[in-house]
Amino acid sequence: MEGGRVYGGSNISSILLPNQRVSSSSTADNNNLLISPSSSAFPGSRSMVNFSDASGFNFSGKSFFRSFDYEENGDEDFDEYLRQPEKKRRLTVDQVEFLERSFEVENKLEPQRKVQLAKDLGLQPRQVAIWFQNRRARWKTKLLEKDYDSLKASYDTLKINYENLLKETEKLKTEVLTLTNQHLLNGEEVENSESLHLIEQCPTQTQQLIPNEVSGERLLDVTAVVCKQESFNSSNSDVVDTDSPRYINGLHSSALLMEPANSSHVFEVDQPDLSQDEDENFSKNMYNSSKLEEPNPPANSCNYGFLAAEDQPVWFWSC
DNA sequence: AGAGTCAAAGAGTACT
DNA sequence: AGTACTCTTTGACTCT
């Protein structure tokens, strides 16, 4: 149903504009509609669209409908059709095009413009107003869709960057672990002697050697010394997440990883599980990303490392 | 038949 | 109070 056809209606005359074609793209399908400024033929509150053939043939009243409907249904049906209450009908292609162009210029409708448009198109000002209202609604919907698309694109880009960063982090962790291991192996003898020295310093019965295996996983091939926190002056230690019982399997939660150092810092890195709920974790971790950086190592930090205890990576550094 | 589109109505709201 | 707007819903119609 395009191009000058109407769904129904009882008042049919012409849309004529003496010196102006409504659409620059009028086609045969549009019946070469013209708009009349003397559209007093639109008295109702609804679209009383009137038609006239540009070639001069007058589709007045019945004869217009005969062109697409009457032949099929006959006189009785047509009379009944005319009597039935007005039904909604679409605006013609030309009218819509005209309105569209007007909308492009300004999507708000001042009263004067509304009246002028209504006059030009042979519509009720109310119809023009409604068309603009609906058009603004459609425009807004489009805008929202556009916004959504661009936001989604940004989100996807961020997500990819985030995942790349995670991979990079994992890679660096592995590298650090390898290098630390290597470094410690090289200085094993020195470490052992220092460990013995520390053991001597620890209060009795509170010493414990860190096993080579933590949480069932082989970790550093190195002997470290652990003393309970009470053995040391707390001012010498900074521990992040001290409530966590997960540092070292089987040790008191406040147990410290000790290395020859003046102070120690231990913090955990949340392990994101992208496989479970990727998006949620991504958002969560993006939100928490600042927390990751929170335990800034002191400026004079000189040693750091990484332990996996109970599936939780534990970072530490010390000086 | 059901989904989608569009013109229009109605309720609620903001502004003068 | 009047007007014009947004938002939601309704009903007619088209399309697949």
From TrEMBL:
Stretches that traverse the bilayer: none
Function, as annotated: Transcription factor.
Subcellular localization, as worded in the UniProt entry: Nucleus
CDD domains in the record: homeodomain (cd00086)
Annotated region of DNA binding: 84-143
SUPFAM superfamilies named among the record's database cross-references: Homeodomain-like
Record protein name field: Homeobox-leucine zipper protein
Record-stated family: Belongs to the HD-ZIP homeobox family. Class I subfamily.
